[in-house]
Amino acid sequence: IFSLVVFSSLLTDGYQNKTESPQLHCVLNSNNVACSFAVGAGFLAFLSCLVFLVLDAHESRIASSRFKTAFQLLDLILA
Q1: Pick from 3, 7, 64, 70: most CB atoms within 10 A?
Q2: Transmembrane residues, as ranges (predicted)?
Q3: Tens digit of each residue's pLDDT (9 = 90 or more) over 24-45
Q4: What single string gives the DSSP state of each residue in 39-57?
């Protein structure tokens, strides 16, 4: 949910136009790379949350103990 909040707030309020220019500028020091990185990081965090949600739902069906251990360890690290 936090990734959705960050992602949506940067998309809606991260770019604003100045009074003298109709072009949108990034609010993070007018650095487009900073806004692009933040939007990309928020999007990747949201996608990883969806992947882990699906894997959590199907965890009982995972037969390989090595994969299950690796999945749980990665889930713990990213959480």
Answers
A1: 7
A2: 37-55
A3: 888 877 788 888 888 888 888 8
A4: HHHHHHHHHHHHHHHHHHH
* Element (DSSP H or E) covering residue 33: helix 32-57
Q: Answer yes or no: are the C-beta atoms of 35 and 28 closer than 8 Å.
A: yes
Describe the crossing of helices 65-78 and 32-57 by its angle, rounded to 10 degrees.
140
Is residue 48 over pLDDT 80? yes
Q: Please report which helix (H) or strand (E) contains residue 69, including its range.
A: helix 65-78
Q: What per-residue string of b and e applies to 36-63 under the rule 16 or more CB within 10 Å gives b? A: eebbeebbebbeebeeeeebeeeeeeee
Specify the DSSP class assigned to residue 29: T
